[in-house]
Design goal:
heterodimer; A: mainly alpha; 2 domains; 15 helices; flat; disordered C terminus; B: mainly alpha; MetI-like fold; two-stranded antiparallel ribbon; 71% helix; disordered N terminus
């Protein structure tokens, strides 16, 4: 059942494959195509019941300006950026330190610590929900960007630490030993030897975390109340209520929400997949 | 390594401070402390708090009243809890289609033809899109009046029920939406795994006359073990975590028929102020999840043996 290289098979099979490929792609991406097509559909098309056919005219510009003009989507987008960027920076910083601590030193309880970071990342959000909400209230950061940012930093640090620790453990340990023999301080070893070497891992984590945090819906839902602080995922639910019958506008909004992580993925594809599939090809 | 440390210390002419002597013990703690502190405050301690909360009655404000196992006793008599649990099992079972489908898509795409890289990344696309967007699109597809399904099937004389408004169909409608990004995720795991499949072994097996299913099961799948393991873990976790799609597509309705534990918990805490009861639901979900977490950790521990 393992396909032979298509080049080895008969000409007709090769042609069949080359035809099947784009067709399957279109079927697979139908939901995305639907969003794009609907985002460009004009009001008159909708009024005439042309929901799924080929639009008679493209109304991208009208729809997008209508969305930006009549909703807070610009604010939502900005909020997503304000929440996502510091969360990534914080999680990467903490996890580089912790990953190095777990990878470069032998001490008892090392595996337990690592296991805690990993296990914590798998728990259902609901088991954290009520205490975390209460905690942000007590800290005075409920219904602020900081509530979500602090939580995201803490939570994502679990996965990032696991990732960084594995990456650092694969680095040639002789470098560290040599530096220690020279009397270089541990802190300088981290900053001048380890950090430059883990740049690819940091890039992979950054793209991955960008999509995770950007697309997160649950934590802003729990920790943010004001409409003007909502990130785009939450903003879409507002839009859903607002554009109850203007599907083209809701689709345009969805497209805008989906675009940043999609662009990030295409720009940094190699890093993204390296991050996501860590461990899938070994052990 | 011990020798080197002693040599360095000697060179420092006995001006060895306590810190210097123990830096290989102190530094890791210093490095790990900030991450561990944050993680403890926002993740580990709240788990304990939630479990404790599940033994109380609390409205979110005011005093907490200790009620022992009463919340759990109430759960046993709560039909919505059972419905949600059954739905979570549906999610689990049907979500396992994602690794299977993902494997076949990966096998299909594992060719070297012009433009295949772009095709692969386009196939992966759904995973990058927010679940909220996925939920919105599938809800349009299902709409009985103007949805894509209705538009396509009506001319054929087939009439579907209003999927998301039908008690028997709603959960499955949501699961299908969830399978779309999940399959993409599993596909990319398998594509990476297929990269490291040994072509000589396949050739050898072919010469021995292995083909079709036998080749897949006996030769290919064993080499994809690591990918399968991760695919299973992320799929199970994803199935148990299902919340976003339920929230955006049905809010658990109609009549709780598409509710899942994660959403029912949220519903109890946020809309009914039953914090203790909600915590009991969360604890049940947590216990179910722990089976998989322990499984993952045990395997990890096995792999760690012999590591530096």
């Amino acid at each position: 059942m393992f396909p032979r290289p298509i080049q080895d098979s008969s000409r007709s099979r090769q042609i069949a494959y080359k035809v099947a490929l784009p067709i399957s792609l279109i079927v697979w991406l139908l939901p995305m195509i639907a969003i794009v097509a609907t985002a460009g559909r004009s009001l008159s098309d909708l009024n005439y019941g042309n929901y799924w056919g080929i639009p008679t005219e493209w109304a991208f510009i009208e729809n997008f300006s209508a969305v930006f003009g009549s909703s807070s989507i610009g604010v939502y987008l900005l909020n997503s950026v304000i929440i996502t960027v510091p969360s990534i920076v914080g999680a990467l910083f903490l996890s580089t330190l912790a990953g190095a601590g777990l990878a470069l030193y032998r001490f008892s309880g090392r595996f337990i610590l690592l296991a805690l970071f990993i296990a914590g990342n798998f728990v259902p959000f609901q088991i954290l929900m009520i205490p975390v909400r209460q905690l942000t209230l007590d800290l005075g950061v409920y219904d602020t960007y900081w509530g979500v940012i602090l939580f995201q930093i803490a939570f994502q640090t679990g996965f990032c630490t696991f990732f960084m620790r594995n990456f650092i453990a694969e680095l040639p340990f002789e470098l560290v030993e040599a530096a220690r023999a020279e009397g270089v301080s541990e802190w300088k070893i981290l900053v001048h030897i380890i950090v430059p070497l883990v740049r690819p891992a940091l890039a992979a984590l950054a793209v991955l975390q960008f999509t995770f945090i950007w697309n997160d819906f649950f934590w802003p839902l729990i920790l943010i109340q004001s409409d003007e602080l909502r990130p785009i995922t939450l903003g879409l639910t507002t839009l859903k209520g607002q554009y109850i019958s203007s599907f083209n506008l809701l689709a345009a909004g969805s497209l805008i929400a989906a675009l940043p992580p999609v662009m990030m993925f295409f720009a940094m594809q190699r890093h993204f997949i390296a991050g996501l599939t860590l461990g899938a090809s070994k052990g | 390594m011990a020798e080197i440390t002693i040599m360095t210390d000697h060179r420092a002419e006995r001006s060895v401070t306590f810190f210097r002597k123990h830096k290989l013990l102190i530094m890791p703690l210093v490095f790990i402390a900030p991450a561990f502190a944050m993680f403890s405050i926002f993740v580990i301690y709240p788990i304990i708090q939630s479990i404790a909360l599940s033994f109380t009655e609390w409205q979110g404000i005011g005093p907490k009243k200790w009620v022992g196992f009463n919340n759990y006793r109430l759960l046993l008599d709560d039909p919505v809890f059972w419905k949600s649990l059954v739905n979570n099992i549906y999610w689990l079972v049907f979500f396992l289609l994602a690794p299977v489908l993902g494997l076949f898509v990966a096998l299909f795409l594992n060719q070297n033809v012009y433009g295949i890289r772009l095709v692969k990344s386009l196939f992966f696309f759904p995973f990058v899109v927010s679940q909220i967007v996925v939920g919105l699109v599938f809800a349009w597809f299902y709409d009985p009046a103007f949805g894509l399904l209705a538009t396509l099937l009506d001319p054929l004389g087939v009439s579907l029920p209003p999927i998301l408004a039908d008690e028997n169909w709603a959960t499955f409608g949501i699961i299908v939406a969830g399978l779309w990004p999940q399959t993409a995720y599993c596909m990319i795991l398998y594509l990476t795994g297929l990269n490291s499949v040994n072509p000589e072994m396949i050739e050898a097996a072919r010469l021995d006359g292995a083909k079709g299913w036998r080749l897949l099961v006996k030769i290919i799948l064993p080499q994809l073990k690591a990918a399968t393991f991760i695919a299973l873990v992320v799929t199970v976790i994803g199935a148990l975590r299902s919340f976003d799609l339920v929230a955006i597509m049905t809010e658990g309705g109609p009549y709780n028929s598409s509710n899942v534990l994660a959403y029912y918990m949220y519903d109890n805490a946020i809309f009914r102020y039953r914090m203790g009861y909600a915590s009991a639901i969360a604890t049940v979900l947590f216990l179910i999840m722990n089976v998989y977490i322990v499984w993952f950790l045990m395997r990890l521990n096995k792999n760690e043996k012999g590591a530096r």
